[in-house]
Design goal:
Number of helices: 17
Number of domains: 3
CATH superfamily of the largest domain: Type I PLP-dependent aspartate aminotransferase-like (Major domain)
Distance between the termini: 32 Å
CATH architecture of the largest domain: 3-Layer(aba) Sandwich
Strand order of the largest sheet: 7-15-14-13-10-8-9
Largest sheet: 7 strands, mixed
CATH topology of the largest domain: Aspartate Aminotransferase, domain 2
Number of strands: 19
Length: 463
């Protein structure tokens, strides 16, 4: 959506930013002013208000921005988007809603937080719920049922709903998967595998790592050999989709190796669940987030736990209060979360799951593949080099080498000026690459506009 295209004000106009004046305190007067200005989308309309009744009318119309000007005490209770003094109004509009303003729509081509639909945003703004009451209980049960349907799981699988990012789900799972005196084997072929290793180390767990190239899937034979050595491991942890580079690891083969040695698996599926091919059945702890490929709002995460994983979690003495996975696994039966959940994020996930189930994982993967085809064609045509070979690439991230003498900072700023946000490399790749992600509610038209913007930016920076 473009920046605010039309500013309306209840007469008399409070600032020079006003495009049209509204004579009646009525939502239909706002629509009439829009019709006269030939603006059809009320989300692109800003309304300037000097009285609480004005705010109420603008809210009823669904205006994209409701700005109150005047006495703060009298207007605050009406809940405008922002309060301003008359002398600061023009600068505020420019800073928040202008072409370079903080509230304009940027096309997020970063690997989370991803773009979300209006339906998902509306779900987060619904009725306030108490997590000890029946309304939240109904939401909780709906989420569990939908997650099982999407993952193809029966009710023997348990689900932990957490407040926090996917990293919180990873830490809760790692702590629950390894018994006292047990050991964890971690696959490290990117920043997020390294984070799993560091998470376990800080939790006091003995860790061994299988290191691999950041641009190639991990060597399954090396993992198999490590699992067979010594006294064995309690758990194997691996990132399915390493967003460091957009690399997919062979989780299915690794799960078979773990099963052969009676080792439980912790799989970070944070940026793959909902799009990539992933058979959850052979796994034990599968960590996911509400955002990224599920297109919900950030702030909630969850863990899909097999019967074996649930038994393991019950064996392990909790080493964290906030991240006690066993406590979260009891909620389905008890109906009482251990702490206040991130209810708006969970409400948005409820709506996002409806959309994901309607489309299906295969359908969403096809949609993501079409986006990646646009990117791949452009990257090849521009003579840029991708880090990961095609067979190992995900359906959502492309890691591209920066041309000589082009810095990420310079490229980022030029693309941002055109309304696009790309992501830097991480770790050892920070100065070498940039990343383009196509997660979330991204339209092909967004990418078709991005390609010429990227071409212009590179032409300027390479000249």
């Amino acid at each position: 959506m473009a920046p605010i295209a039309l500013w309306l004000a209840f007469a008399p106009a409070p600032a020079s930013s006003t495009v049209a004046q509204i004579q009646a305190v009525d939502p239909f007067a706002i629509f009439e002013a829009m019709r006269s200005a030939r603006v059809a989308d009320v989300r692109r309309v800003g309304v300037l208000c000097t009285e609480p009744a004005h705010v109420a009318a603008a809210r009823a119309a669904g205006a994209g921005a409701v700005v109150a000007v005047g006495e703060p005490l009298a207007l605050a209770a009406a809940a405008p988007d922002v309060l301003a003094r008359p002398e600061e109004l023009d600068s505020l509009i420019a800073e928040r809603y202008g072409r370079g303003g903080a509230q304009r729509r940027l096309v997020l081509l970063n690997p989370g937080p991803a773009l979300t639909s209006d339906a998902v945003k509306r779900a987060a703004g619904g009725a306030d719920l108490c997590h000890r009451e029946r309304e939240y209980r109904a939401l909780d049960l709906r989420l569990r049922a939908k997650l099982r349907r999407l993952a193809g799981l029966d009710e023997t699988w348990r689900i932990a709903l957490l407040s926090g990012s996917g990293t919180a789900a990873n830490e809760a799972s790692v702590r629950a998967a390894v018994r006292p005196e047990g050991r964890l084997l971690v696959v490290v072929n990117g920043v997020y595998g390294a984070r799993l290793r560091d998470t376990a180390t800080r939790a006091g767990i003995e860790v061994a790592a299988i290191e691999g190239s950041w641009t190639e899937p991990i060597d399954v034979a090396a993992v198999e050999a490590a699992l067979r050595e010594g006294d064995g491991f309690d758990a194997l942890a691996v990132v399915h989709h390493e967003t460091t580079t957009g690399l997919l690891n062979p989780v299915g083969a690794l799960a078979r190796a773990a099963t052969a040695t009676e080792t439980v698996t912790v799989v970070d599926a944070i940026s793959s669940f909902g799009v990539e091919e992933l058979d959850v059945q052979p796994l034990d702890f599968v960590t996911c987030t509400s955002n990224k490929c599920l297109h919900g709002l950030p702030g909630a995460s969850f863990v899909l736990v097999s019967p074996t994983g649930a038994r393991r979690a019950a064996e392990v003495e909790p080493t964290s209060v906030a991240l006690d996975l066993g406590a979260y696994l009891m909620v389905e039966e008890s109906g009482s979360p251990p702490f206040t959940p991130a209810i708006p994020a969970l409400a948005s996930l409820d709506t996002a799951l409806d959309l994901a189930l309607a489309e299906g994982i295969d359908g969403r993967r096809r949609r993501y593949a079409a986006r990646c085809a646009i990117l791949d064609e452009a990257i090849d045509r521009l003579g840029l080099q991708q880090l990961v070979a095609a067979p190992a690439r995900s359906h959502s991230i492309r890691s591209v080498r920066l041309p000589p003498a082009v810095t990420f900072e310079a490229l980022h700023e030029r693309l941002r000026a055109d309304g696009f946000v790309v992501y830097a490399g991480q770790g050892a790749l920070a100065a070498e690459i940039f990343r383009i992600a196509c997660m979330g509610e991204l339209e092909p038209a967004d990418l078709e506009r991005f390609v010429p913007a990227l071409e212009r930016a590179l032409a300027e920076l390479c000249s």
